[in-house]
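Supplementary notes for students who missed Thursday's class. We covered one full example, reproduced here. Read the sequence, then the structure, then the short commentary at the end.
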Amino acid sequence: MDTLTSGESEKLAHELRGDLITAADPRYDEARKVWNGDIDRHPLLIARCVDVADVTAAVTFASRRGLPIAVRGGGHSVAGQGVCDGGLVIDLSRMRAVQIDPEHRLAHVQGGALWQDVDRNSQAHGLATTGGIVSETGVGGLALGGGIGHLMRRCGLTVDNLVEADLVTADGTRLRVDADKDPELLWGLRGGGGNFGTVVRFGFRLHEIGPTVLAGMIIYPLDVAPAFLAHYRDLVADAPDELGTILNLRLCPPVEAVPERLHGSPIVAVNVCWSGDHEDGLAFLRPLREFGRPLLDTVGPMPYVELQQMVDRTSPPGKEYYWRSVDFGELSDQVITTVVEHASRITSPLAAVPIYHLGGAIGRVPATDTAFGSRHAGHNINMFGAWEPGRGDRERHVSWVRDFSEAMAPHSVGQYVNFLNDEGSDGVRAAYGERWRRLVALKRRVDPQNLFRYNFNIDPGRLDEGDT
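Structure (token representation):
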């Protein structure tokens, strides 16, 4: 459906406590923007919901008319999943409340909340759960696809801490799911993305973390990257769960924590989070910090909420982004050579090559407990292309990402669903692997018309030989 009568849209507008924005509204172009400036989609309607009743009304409206639905939380998906062409956007950005139950160590989080909302409220009680590494990331998108972050090796992924959820399914039904009420749907929500409805409330398990952690960054010039990465590999091979690290190869960004003399220079950096005893952390990190002569070392006691905001300015909204990712095992000599070679050809000061150290608690969760894959990968690499809009050189940046991705493909042991981009249905199926058929069965039950398809889509109508 490409059009609606004014009477139809007016009917929905009257049902909502929030706003309904159409293409004729002067707010329309701003309302349809998402973080990735490379995305330019035109929905028929944008429903800015303020409560569950609004969400239910919007979903029911779309369902009856066969309109595809995109759900916008933080709008931070590189694939632009928070906006659609010719459909209805359910914008949850006015639903950001967070309630902490310190006695039971639970966070009750509305579907439009950002991770900064969760961190600020949970840290008031000395509690936290694994969240994103950019504080403006939406809780919903990250949590439903997996959820990697600084605490994942100690606390598990975000999906491992998702214990309950309230959602509105494609037929307008409101459901509460947990381990006792529809455990199969909870399983699907824990890694299956936004395929099964609009989640209006998440319930997350919290852990005693902070309010201060041992954190910061250590920066070396890129020309020592081969030796430094081998040194890092040997150190973190037996790292305790309390250590979270993210490598990054890029041109040094102009952030306040870094002296201006380093801005724009090619670097290899490691962002550190030690969530255990600080003295133990300092002892363990000493060999990493004493390798050669670092250009900068800011490791020290830091508020956890400050760590969660440390790289916010390196990926500002409105720039254009394109990326690929690969899960791999060991940071072998061959992988190091490939990474350094391609990072040395980086095409933009905005681009980056983050490498996330996995393992720890992630690998101890049984593979069948969640829809998330790659439980036994050692690392994830994100080939993060980014550039200024309007320069006319998009293909140069995209080609760098694709060439890098192809070079890493022989080392791949899987893919992180949230880091997919334009790999299409085959890429989504490959990322889920053996979980695919179970996810399809669940999708057929709760969204057989595939209204929720602006996500890493589990197509309920896709049948291959041997599927039932």
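Commentary. The chain has three domains: 6-91, 98-208, 212-419. DSSP finds 15 helices and 20 strands in the chain. If anything here is unclear, bring it to office hours.
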